[in-house]
Every structure is written in C-alpha cells, then in structure tokens.
User: Which sequence fits this backbone?
C-alpha cells in the first residue's frame, strides 16, 4: 500500500451536510516515505466554537513546517505553501469579500438563531483558498459515469424484490433501514407506482494514489448537500486565478465550470412542470435549525428566478415544432409575462409535514393548504431525523401521495451501502444495465466491496486490516472502523456468531494523495496537508414514456485536513474546494 | 405648519454610515390631525445590542395599533400595515434569503471581529420590506438637479477666496473646519492645482408635506455611504414586487432601477484611466473597524470585475474611429486578454497611510510600495477620524500628492453647511453658474438657510422655534437643535455675544409625510410609522480639457421610525429603502 492511507468516515462521505462539525478522517500509521508528523495536525483546531471575539483581528496564517517529502503529490501543479505570505493575505481577503458578496455563506455555529432565521449570524463557508489539482482523464471519467449511475439507480429502484432481498439481513440489525423497508413494503402492498421519477444524486470518488484509479466511495441518492455552494467555490477560484494570474501563474479556465445549482434547479423545475399543476409548490424537507440553509436557498432562489423561462421554453418548443417559427425572442422581450409564473417553494420539517400534511382524495399531497408538486428531501436520511413516530408518519404520508418524491423510498434504498456492495458482486450489474460498455465503466470505479459472510474477504481483512474499512449500514457519521479495530471487530463478531455482522460491509481502503493546501475558516487561514474527495452531481428525471433529463450537473470537491490516527480515530476538518485540471 | 414635523439630525443626513446606531429623529408636538401616540414608537427598540439568542426564532411581527389618521399619506398607493401577517411572513423570509444570497449585508454589531475581517459576523442590512411611495415629478426633479449640483461643486471648489471668506468665522469656532482650511491654505500657498477632479456626491432631500416641495437637506461631497447597498435594496424590492405581483398588486417597474454601485465603480475606473498609470491602484481610505465594509466592497469588487471592459472599450473606440472596423466582438471572445488588466484596490486607514505613505519626487503618492492613482475617502469626514496628528499628516500628504482625490480638500469644504447656507443667499449661485435655468432649478430646492448674524432670521426663530432647526457646522451626528431648545440657545448666544454663533446655521424645518411601513432588522420585522429622505448619487469627473462624466448615478432612500420628541431629542432608527413612483 502506498503513501498515506485515508478513507472518509460516514459523516463525511455521507450525502448530508456534515462539513462543519469536525469530522473524522483516518490514516493508518504512515509509511516512511510519507511521515505525517503531529506538527501538521495541530494547526487546524478541532473545534473553533469559541467566541470569534478572541480570534485575531486579521487573517492570521498558521504556518506549518515544510516537509519536503509531502510536497510531491502526483499532480504537482503548484504548491500553495510556497506562495509568499503577503500574497496569501491578499488572496484570503479577496476570497472572504467575494464569498460575502456572492452568498457563499453558512450559518455561524456560534449564533444560535443562525439556523432558524435567514440573514442573521452568517459567516463565509469554510473553503480551500485555491483549487485542488486533479487529472483531467479521471475527471472526464467521473463525468461520463454520472448518467450511467442515474440509469442504474432507476433500474434498481424498480426491482422491489432485489431491494427487499438484498436488505433482508440488514433489516434485522439496523432499525433505520428496517423502517425504510417497511415503507417500501407498504408501497408494494398498495401497488403504488412512481410514474414520474426524479433523482438528484451525488457519486463520491477518491483517487487512489498507488493505482491512480478513480474509485467510488458511495452513491448518494438522498439529500445530497452543497449543490448550491459548490458552484460558487468554483466561481470564486476562477475569479482569484484570473485576478492573480501573473503572481500565481495558473489558468482560470482549468477550473471546470460548475453548474450544480442551476442544473438542479432546472431539473426540479422540469419535474414541477411534469406534475402539471401550476398552483402546486416545491417543498423542501428540512432539518430544524439548518445552518447550511443557504446551500438549499440557492436552489430554490434559482428555481424561482429561472423557472418561468423553462415554462416558456417548453411552450415555444412546441410552437417551433408545429409551425417552425422562432418566437423565443418575442417572449424574452416581455419580462412581465415571464414573472407571472414563478414557482413557489416552501420549507417544512418532517414534524411540520406530519402536523400540516394530508392526502386529498385524488392523491394530491397538501401541506398547510398548498398542493405539493415536488418533495425535495434535505432531511430524512439519518435516524436522528426521526426522533418520534411523527416523522415516520410524515415520511409514509409523502410516499403514499401523488407528489414527485426526490427521492422515492426505492431510490433512497438503492443508495444504501448494502446495495452498493451487492451491485459490486459479479454479474449483478448485468441484471440492470443492458449496455456492456456501461457495465464495464461502472465496474472500473468500484472499490473492493464485501459482505461479512464472505469468509475469504473476512480472513484477508483480519490478516491485513490496514487494507480495509468496515462501514456500518447506518448513516450518521463517525462510525467507520479502521486499522487494528477492523481485525478486533471481525474477530469478536466471528466469536459471537451474531447477526450483527449484517450491519457492516467491508470496503477496500482507498489511499488518496496527501497534498499541501491553504484552508480558510471563520476568517482565519491555515496551511495544512489534506486529502480530497470528488462528488459528481447528477440529475435524472423521467415520466412514464420517456427520460426527460439524465445528465452530469456539476461537482463538489471536499478537502479535509489529514490527521494521523495515532491512538485511533483522529479528527480532520473539511472545506469546500474545486478542481484544477492537470 | 401641517401634520407631523420631522427633520433628520446630522447623524442621519450626514454622508456617512450612521445608519446602524440608533440615530435621532425629531418631531414637534403633533398637531391634532396627526397624533403620534407613544404606542407607535415603542415597537422599534432603540438598541438591539442584546444577544440574538434571546430573540424569537422566527420573524416576529411587532404589530402597532392602527391609527386611521396616519394611514393617509399624500401618495397612498398601498398601506403595508394592511397586508395579512402570513404574507408579511413570506415576504420577510424571502427578503432575508435574497439579502443573504446577494450580499446585502453588514457587519453585526454584536460580533467584534465583524468590522475587522470580511466574511465573519455578517447580518442582513436593515431594510424596509417594501418600497416607499414617492411622486414621479419630484423624483425626476431630483435626478435633473444632480448634474447641476456637480457643476456647482466644481465651480465653487475653484474659488478659493470664496471658500476661505465664507468659512472665516466658522474657522474661529470649529477646530475641524479650521484644520481643513489650513490644508486648503497650504495648497494655495504651494500653488497646488487639481487638473483631474473627481466627485462622488449625494444630495439629500425631503419632501415637505405641506408644500409638496422637494427640499434639499444637504449636499455631501465626501464619503457618501450606501452606493453599494442601496442599489441592492432596489433590486430586492423589484424582485419581491415581481414574485408577489398578484397579492400585492404593485408593479415592479415602478421601482426605479438603481445603478449606484456600477456607476460609481465606472467613474472610479474612468478616473483611474485618466491618471494613466496601469500599475497604480485605487486606495479606499477607511475607518478602522468599519462594519459597513460590504457597501464599500461592492464598489471595489465591481470596479475590479468591470474595469477591464472599460479599458478595452476605450481601445476599441479608437480603432473604430480610425478604421471603421468592428473589433469589439473579437476582443470579447478572448477572456484572458480581458483579465490581465484588473484594477487593484487597496484599503487603508488614515493612520496606516501616515505610516506607509510617501510622495515620490514626481508627485506620485506611494503607499506600502504601491503607486496610488485614485484616493477614495470613506473616512476623514468627521473629527473623530483624526484622533491624533498622524491622521492630519496623512490627509495633508494625500492632498499634496499627484493622486486624484475623491474629494479634494476644496470639494470637501464646498460640502460644508456654512457654504450651503452662503450659496442660498441671493445672487450667490449666479457667481458660479451661467445658466439661469440651472440657477432657478437649484434655488427651487433650497430650504430657508440663514446664518446667525441674520438678525431677522434669529428673531423669527426665537418667536417660532418649531419652524427651525439649528445645525452645527461640525459633522458627527446627533447635534442638531430643535423646538424650544432653538429659542433657548439663540437667546443664550445673544446674551453672551460670543463667536460661538458662527458654529451654527439656521435652517427651515422640513415636515415630511409620516407613513406606515414595515421594517426588518436583525431578522425581526416591525410595523412602524416613519419618514424618509431621498439621496441622489451623482458622479463628476473632468480633466484639464473636458468633462468626462457628469451624471446621476442612483439613489438612496432612507426610512426612519418617527418618534415624538416629548422631552427633547428622541431616538429613531433608519433602514435602507427604495422608491415606488406614483
């Protein structure tokens, strides 16, 4: 195994927004060519929850000692640690100003109301100062995979037996998956079909340093976070590279344009059109006290601003087909007409939905008196989102309704780790995809995945635990098992012979390149060494007859401070980043 | 005198950014037809400096009792107090989200670092939820006056004797004006000429309810605040009116498009071009700990983003004239070329300028090693900006340099109240403006202005103090004298026979309409009654040969909670607003 090993914990690689709380990032003990001395990890505090009043007034740069062995990533375009500190100061200042003016913001954890009321207690999102080098070949590969994964999710979601069978053992040991499966069963029982199916997905990858392979960490089918903010980070980086072209010597065009917010909004709008009730709303299911609300607001704001154009565009297309006349310019010149058809978006917690929601006789889902066309989940992916039966009632009610669910219960279950592991088995993909090239492309990005009833895999993992990660089915973060703990846990499970082993899968441990980076958080910048993970956003929309959208929409690069795991799980911290193609 | 009387104190009508601290707003005792009961004034707290943790989680609406006599402004398009509370909630939520995403933000006074580091401790700017009705005739009048006032400032600034003579008595009693005059004298002494003259002005008006006349409060020639944020408020209001067209029944186009940020940035860019040194920077002179920094950042960000286009536009125009070929499209298609000429902007306090600045032998002003093309003052207008001799040294150094000053010391002095009062005397405008129509237009907007050596005026003011305001020359806010205090102060000054009277001017008290409004601050909305003041931004740029820019650039509507002045000076609170033309 090469260099430093790292694999993101659930809390990081999960679809949700656990970017802000310190999250876990793990390394095996560093091989000699990549010694991560503790001095590299002490600079980024695990918790910055102290009052900002005590922070230095100007952006202080926390300088790490240079370790030459670390400054040699595989794609060493530039090393941001070599930029002189005066230029770093200017870049940080400009980045913070740009973020503030352009809505690259989150709720400040130090301000209690910041998750409750928009516009108060805002702070810039934690960001990497400059983009992260990434090979163009693997970038293209990741983009190419997006529509294939979309198609796979849709096909798997239709195979109810496959989902129920695959998750049958998990059901016994994981209460959360069990509840989801109950809803799924109930839908089968009442013969509920989803004719209009909407998926807003994010497939997360790491680049394995030794093999240079792009390997999938997981495929998120519910509540994918950061489509709203990640595109802003790309724009910020392009702006900085453009303004500081001479001193940095980098080309802004090498940061791929990121259209995650506008594309997700567009497809939400298209789904709304498919529902075909102009007075119906798009409902965002939110967690109470959501500090990452601006990421979500960007989607709904874009939808509200943009959607009227889509509506007219469809009308025009029909006119064009029928009469071959170009009427588009005419409509564009009348802004009032355009403004009359804004999509209304509402935000509700699961508890509010339970209290205010009902299904009308025609299947319409009504919340607080408003018909709901599309339900977009930004909550409901983790057990803690269901503190009482009310939330489960809300989830069931939505699933039973005629509203378009993003995702449906089937899409949600298709994104579970157990299904991911099952799909990695030989000849399983072929059940769902006809195109052999597509199957080959997907398989190429699969890391090794095994269930714990695979005795050979378990034997190997006990023998060589540093090559594996044990992932619990349960979402929620921080529960992955690494290193010697893999061995110990496997031995314990073998001894006990319990069903508990069904709660885990084994995954090949991926070892991404550790690279030097400059991170900015709470107005303070840090020189650190980090690893990163690439998420590709994709959207899928179809009705009974045809596929309306199936496309790559943008990307999320998350960069996390690397930490040694002396003594077990160590804490890292993640920021939003973008790509610099090499 | 009709209805409620109100005149803004210095702290509000002054050019600076005293929007956030509670500021004074005064009324005479209300005549019977417009009784402002105390219940209207207790809802907007004078200070909200308590922790937001104690604030309600959702936008609470503070409802005032309806007083029918108040709901009859002269231009009663709609009364926002009659909007149902559910719709108000939606509007407030959307307004707060829009503000957060679009950079309509300020530093939160509760976060100490918010004035020191960008991107931390941000909160939405205090705003009126909906625009304020304003008659189109007076709006057009105010716009028409902008270039005439620009021309007047330029002409007055060239008459050194007029400035020195007019301010000679003020000099003896006002230390701040005295220091400014010393710098002015020094420039005369060394024969310093400003060939390139740049003014970014704001002329503030109120609409007198009784006469329906647009009357000038003052003309600001230094540090005019809110060109960056006011245009965002107009855009916010247009967006809300458009999205809620049906329930509100208002037309978004009736909110005039506000180009204050882009126009100010454009003229700053043009001035930079005139200076003709591509490596020179634009320097913003700032107060330390500026919480209104985003208002300033909007100008410099726009300048940086936009300026390359201006530069190329000039190049292209020359090519077009010479060869009659359309080359513009070609250049536009090469973004890299465009990106190489960004204007650099730096921010410095007066103390930093004193420490880092020097004048090179050719007159170039250099700060921290960088040549300065344009000095844009957003500090230096008030005595508190000069806590030591260092700041005065910095001011003198800048004035002596070849950099373009916005404003020069002459422009600054031209904006003083004493000069305003002198210009209002018969036959004075005619000394500076040839066009008689222009003179008539300016005179029409002048409120009554008198010096304290005008014995008739003083006599009248003692007899009828409620019709006058005493304004001290000194900037800084909260020093205006109203009501019985006018009488007492005038009698005291008469008795003492001191020079102190030269520190004041007498101004006709303006009585604007009190109207119902909804204000939003710190995420909380308030139904209040308020008065407002219209500021018209204008830019003027000329070189030795020709006037390059002389135009109206945008507007600032400030709306303040009206307060009775039982017991003297009462506190009001100001928010950013926009216009709805009637």
Assistant:
């Amino acid at each position: 195994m090469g260099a430093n090993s790292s694999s993101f914990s659930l809390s990081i690689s999960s679809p949700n927004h656990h970017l802000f709380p310190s999250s876990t990032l793990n390394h095996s003990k560093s091989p000699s060519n990549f010694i991560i001395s503790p001095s590299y990890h002490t600079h980024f505090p695990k918790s910055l929850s102290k009052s900002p009043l005590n922070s230095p007034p100007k952006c202080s740069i926390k300088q790490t000692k240079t370790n030459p062995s670390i400054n040699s990533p595989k794609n060493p375009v530039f090393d941001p640690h070599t930029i002189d500190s005066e230029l770093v100061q200017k870049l940080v200042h400009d980045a913070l100003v740009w973020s503030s003016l352009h809505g690259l913001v989150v709720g400040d954890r130090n301000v209690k109301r910041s998750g409750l009321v928009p516009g108060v207690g805002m702070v810039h999102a934690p960001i990497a100062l400059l983009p992260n080098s990434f090979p163009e070949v693997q970038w293209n590969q990741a983009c190419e995979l997006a529509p294939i994964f979309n198609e796979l999710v849709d096909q798997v979601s239709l195979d109810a037996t496959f989902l129920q069978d695959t998750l049958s053992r998990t059901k016994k040991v994981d209460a959360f998956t069990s509840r989801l499966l109950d809803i799924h069963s109930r839908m089968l029982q009442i013969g509920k079909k989803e004719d209009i199916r909407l998926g807003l997905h994010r497939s997360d990858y790491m680049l394995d340093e030794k093999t240079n392979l792009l390997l999938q960490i997981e495929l998120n089918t519910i509540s994918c976070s950061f489509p709203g903010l990640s595109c802003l980070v790309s724009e910020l980086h392009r702006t900085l590279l453009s303004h500081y072209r001479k001193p940095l010597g980098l080309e802004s065009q090498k940061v791929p344009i990121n259209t995650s917010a506008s594309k997700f909004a567009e497809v939400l709008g298209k789904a709304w059109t498919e529902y075909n009730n102009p007075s119906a709303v798009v409902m965002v299911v939110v967690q109470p006290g959501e500090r990452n609300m601006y990421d979500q607001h960007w989607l709904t704001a874009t939808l509200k601003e943009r959607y009227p154009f889509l509506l007219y565009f469809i009308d025009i297309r029909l006119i064009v087909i029928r009469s071959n006349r170009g009427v588009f310019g005419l409509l564009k010149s009348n802004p009032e007409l355009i403004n009359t058809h804004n999509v209304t978006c509402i935000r509700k917690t699961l508890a509010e939905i339970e209290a205010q929601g009902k299904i009308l006789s025609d299947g319409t889902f009504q919340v607080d008196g408003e018909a709901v066309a599309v339900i977009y989940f930004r909550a409901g992916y983790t057990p803690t989102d269901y503190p009482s039966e009310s939330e489960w009632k809300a989830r069931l009610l939505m699933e039973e309704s005629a509203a378009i669910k993003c995702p449906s219960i089937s899409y949600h279950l298709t994104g579970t780790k157990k299904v991911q592991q099952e799909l990695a088995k030989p000849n399983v993909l072929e059940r769902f995809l006809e195109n052999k090239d597509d199957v080959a492309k997907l398989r190429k990005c699969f890391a090794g995945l095994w269930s714990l009833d695979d005795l050979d895999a378990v034997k190997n993992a006990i023998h060589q635990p540093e090559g594996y990660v044990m992932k619990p089915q349960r979402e929620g973060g921080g529960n992955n098992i690494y290193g010697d703990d893999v061995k110990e846990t496997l031995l314990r499970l073998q001894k006990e012979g319990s069903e508990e082993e069904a709660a885990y899968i084994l995954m090949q441990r991926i070892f991404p390149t550790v690279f030097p980076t400059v991170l900015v958080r709470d107005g303070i910048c840090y020189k650190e060494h980090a690893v990163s993970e690439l998420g590709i956003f994709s959207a899928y929309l179809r009705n009974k007859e045809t596929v309306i959208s199936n496309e790559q929409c943008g990307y999320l690069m998350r960069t996390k401070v690397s930490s040694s795991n002396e003594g077990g799980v160590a804490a890292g911290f993640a920021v939003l980043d973008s790509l610099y193609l090499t």
Chain A touches chain B through 48 residues (CB under 8 Å).
